[in-house]
Amino acid sequence: MQERRFAIIGHRAKSNGKLNLNDLAGSGGRMDVLVRAINSALFLSHGIRKNTHITIHMMGGEGPPRRIWFDGAKVWGLHPDERAIAGQIGKIMVEPTPARGHWIEHQPGIWHSGGDLSVTLNEWDKEDVEIVKLDADAVAFSEQYNTSINNRIGFILSDDQPFTDEENKLLEQKSKSISLGKNWIQGHTAIGVVHHLLDTINDQ
Q1: Strand ranges (DSSP E) for 81-173?
Q2: Pairing mode, if any, of strands 104-107 and 110-114?
């Protein structure tokens, strides 16, 4: 089965401290964007996509950056409700941030680690993941992929802010860029479109 990965950068998302579930967009640093991305990546109408992973990057707040990785094949006790997903993130945020690249399991299918995009890209590169940056100005998805696709592919997207210059430099070295259309769509919508396109190719 094809393994799909998503990584989203939360440039202002708090990495540590108490998460106010009633103010994810404000004091949470647009944590709502990351929560919706998790929902779109993992959940079907009835069930979970067991071939899908998503890693959120929480780059804001006063503490060191933190990553949280959700594995659809192993996750347990997670529900397709934004408040419930945010609650799981909030439980992790009060724990000390692990060292960069050192993953600690919080509960089945959910791990957290220190680090930023550069660490994730290096990990994926070592695992032979085909890395793709979603970019509205790039070549169309249909021109790059139409009949076959790598068995292990990962997509990088940003939150409501564009990638930083440093992130773009990293992605130029490690990834190819594809477009889902000329319009810049929201991250969780982009993930849904990617799933649809990959499902269509795999059904051929």
Answers
A1: 104-107, 110-114, 130-140, 152-158
A2: antiparallel
Mean pLDDT, the chain cut into blocks of 10 residues (204 residues total): 94 97 96 98 94 98 95 93 96 97 97 98 96 94 78 95 96 95 94 94 72
Residue reference for tokens 């440039």: 11
Residue whose C-alpha is closest to residue 36's, from 6, 3, 80: 80
Q: Which of 57, 31, 56, 28 is nearest to 42 (CA)?
A: 56
Interior/surface letters 108-139, b for 16+ CB within 10 angstroms, e for the rest: ebbbbbbbbbebbbebbeeeebbbbbbbeebe
3-203 in CATH: which number?
3.40.1280.10
Cα distance between residue 185 and residue 200, in whole Å: 20
- Would you kindly state where each structural domain of the chain is located, as residue ranges? 3-203
What's the sign of the alpha-carbon dihedral 185, 55, 199, 46? negative
